[in-house]
Structure formats: structure tokens, C-alpha cells
Amino acid sequence: MRRRTDDDGGVSRRSYLAGSAAAVSLPLSGCLGSIGGNGTDDGDDGSTGDAPDRLVVRNGTVVSVDPDIGVLERADVYVENGEIVEVAEGIDPDDAAVIDASGAVVAPGFVNTHLHTWQAGVRGIAGDWTFTDYLEIMLGEVSSHYRPEDAYLGNLFGAAEQLNAGTTTVLDWFHIANSPDHSDRAIDGLEDAGIRAVFTHGPPGDDGAKWWEASTEPHPDDIERLHEERFPVADDRITLAMGIRGPDYATDEVVEEDITRAREMGIPASMHIGSLGGGGVYALEELGLLGDDLNYVHANRFEDEEFALVGDSGGSISTTPEVELQMGMGTPVLGKAAEAGATPSVGVDIVSNVSGDMFTQTRMAVGVQRGIDNQPVVDRGEQTTEVSIDPHRALEIATIEGARALGLEDRVGSITPGKRADLVVIDGGDVNTLPVNNPVETVAFQAGVGNVDTVIVDGEVAKRDGALTNDALAEERDAFEASAERVLSESGLAE
């Protein structure tokens, strides 16, 4: 086994408690992803019921995003009971299921730190909306027509879309908590999809003005029930956070009450902030509420001092570049977040108008930042002598930094013994990935959804041979399409 000399990570080796069940087997092929089925004709459906508890991903180029391991050629990843046990050459445990990753790149699953998963059902309706259009139509109209089963279907298929694209962890910012049943069914959708998620319980979507215009309404009390009944264990595959309105959308009294409640429950809080204007961080500082448990989404119009306050307090910033550029929120702030010491991360946001995969969003965030960094040189009439954010750093931002932003860096984000086995296998033999001259660059800058051959979450195989293994998708497809049709019709948006 040969170790590459370049460093591919920025995270130290960490340990994590063992848990959960593990997964399936089978060889690498490279077919395009599809809904349901297992992409093979051998009769093995890849389900977890009879899944072995030991799995080896064999003979791949492992891009670990762990500086102590680096990039290993022709290496194996051994998984037991959902936990990564060893990363080395020639691992041969008895009776372990085997995934042959020859000619492929094995990387940590992507971490999408901001997604309104429920909007999968209204995909592609908002491609020319401004941000104010979105607030008025999506949160002022469409969200009120979602029933609990619509929330389930949106989250099931929205999470499946993420898995299909190599994303194994999402922060699901759920702002159609119109009833307890809505929240329960949304969580059911995430569970049935098999993704790792931080379910971020937000406000109802039944009255946009009430909940989003200088709101005086505190966070719904149902989050207490969810915390006690649905999320009693903090290290489960799906965990809880609070989606607060924050100072841009609620009064100081509500902001203080919401963050205090989240802290009493010991859960993080995420807020949309800085896309309408600056100053929100100053309000949080004055209230004495800054902390490393706060996630700031967008932040496009923050002043420099606001970035510094977030960084000094240990907060994280989620950049969703495609949405921010389209909707007029402002320039994505990946570089400013990192420079200030905040944890930088990337998210998709909404597939109602933009691409749903982290390949696209990460490259867009990096490309925009490179352009920003290059512009002063261009303005001087000179030539650029170096490029910012190299492929290693880009991949870190899409994996371990995302995990750090969600407080999950001890569990996921790198291929490290002791962490949970959230892995993606990228086919290196496809026309757009062959030859794999630099495996880190292949993943960060070359590969796409169609190259995602195998996806493993918590040791369980969610996609293999280019096809999702979840039979529920085929079973629920008609219901999903009917749900979307009804919601759009009732919202006055059906063509």
C-alpha cells in the first residue's frame, strides 16, 4: 500500500462510541442512479434486516480527510456494527461482506448543512424567484397546504435525492411544523430514507406574517415533546436541533426565549440571518446569546465585525451559494467565514429552485471565492500567481467542516477508525473521472452524481451499483407525485 505525500485533511483522529446495525455487500459497477431496486439481478435486495454486521470496502483509493491517514492507494475500509474499525491494506476478516472498490475512490459522505428537505415535492418551481418572492409565495402560501403525509413524502424523497448524490448527512431545516403530526411524519421520512440527519424543528408554515415578520411568537412547544419522545438519545443517527427565526425575523424577546430553550434542552440552534441586511449578530451580542451552538445560514450582508463575533464565539456559517446568487441575497461568504475563524460549511438550501447535490454547491462556493480572491489582481492588471482553496480544502469544507458545523465531527466527516461508517464510493472508470490522476481532485472538482456508485450510512448500504436500495421509493412514487400535484394546485401554481 502506498501513502500519498500530500495532506488531505484538517481533522485529528477521534473516537466515537459504537452503535447501530451494519450492512450489505456487493461489487462495484458504475450504473447511473435510479429510484428503488438494487441494480442487480442476484436477488439480494440490500435491506438491513438480514445485513451482516461486518463489511469491507476493498481495494479502493481511500481519501480519508484525516491527516493521520491521508490518501491511501489500494486500501480497505473495515466496518463492524456500523463503526469504522480499520483502514489498511489486505484486511480479511472472516465472513465479512465485501464491496469491491477497485478502480474507485472511497471518500467520506458529504455533509449538507442546510436543506429544506420537504421542498422536494415542489421541485423546480422557483427558478426565477427573488428572495422576497420566496418569502411571499413559498412561506406565505405553499407551506400552508402541506399535510402531514406531504411532509413525509417530501422528506423521504428529498433525503433519497441527497443519498443518491453521495450526501450522507443533512441538516433538515423543517419550517412547516404546522402540527405535531407534520413533524412526526417528517422525521419518519428521514428515518425511512436511511440518511443521517439533524432534524431542525422550525416554526409552522401556516401563517407567514405571524411567524416571519418581526414575530412575537415563541418557538412552538411541540419541540419539548420531540426532545423527550422522538430524540431521547443524543447520539442516534437522527438528532434534534431548533430552527429559530433569529433577530432578522423575530423580536429580541422571542430570540432570547428561543435560544435559552434550545440550550436548556442541550440542542443546537440554526437561524437564517444576514440575507436581508446586517446587524443581526450585534443584536445577539447585546443579548449575551453568542455561542458555539449557533449555526448562521447565509450571512451575505454581515459586516466584518459580525463575522469576527461569530468566529470568536465558535459559531458556524452555512453558505448556500446557488440560492444566494439567484435570489439576490448577496455574494456567498465562504472566505469571510473561514478568515474570521467561524466554521465554514456548504448547503443546498432548496431544490424548489436549485441543484440538489453537494458536488455543484461546493464547486460553486469555491469558484465564487476564488473569483473574489483573484479580482484585486485582475483590477491591478496583473496575473494571478496562486489560487485559493485547493481541492483538499474544498473536500474538507464539504465533509469534516460540515460535520463540525453540526457538532458531529466526532462521529462523521472523515474515514477515521472509531467514527461511524458514512462512505461514498466514486467510480473512477467513468468517462469524466478516468484517469484518476489526483483522487482528491476527482472527488472535489470532477465527479458528479452519476459517478456515485455506492453510498453507506452508519454501515448500511443505501446505494450500490449506481441504484438506491430503498424499496419504499418505488412504493411511494405515485403518492409523491400526487402530493406534489395537489399542493401546487391548492397553492395556485399548477400549470
Structure description:
The chain has two domains: about 160 residues, Urease, subunit C, domain 1 (Roll); about 290 residues, Metal-dependent hydrolases (TIM Barrel). The chain is of the alpha/beta class. The chain is built from 15 helices and 17 strands. The radius of gyration is 22 Å and the shape is globular. The strands form two sheets. Strands 1, 2, 3, 4, 5, 14, 15, 16 and 17 form a nine-stranded mixed sheet that branches. An eight-stranded parallel sheet has the order 6-7-8-9-10-11-12-13. The N terminus is likely disordered. Helix 2 crosses helix 15.
Task: Give the overall shape.
Answer: globular
Spatial extent as radius of gyration: 22 Å
Instruction: Give the CATH topology of the largest domain.
Output: TIM Barrel
Low-confidence stretches: 1-33, 38-51
User: What percentage of amino acids are in beta strands?
Assistant: 15-25%
CATH superfamily of the largest domain: Metal-dependent hydrolases
Major beta sheet summary: 9 strands, mixed
Number of strands: 17
The CATH architecture of the largest domain would be Alpha-Beta Barrel
> In CATH's first tier, which class of the largest domain applies?
Alpha Beta
* Total helical elements: 15
Helix-strand category: alpha/beta
Give the fraction of residues assigned to helices. 25-40%
Please indicate the count of domains.
Answer: 2
Mean of pLDDT? 91
Distance between the termini: 58 Å
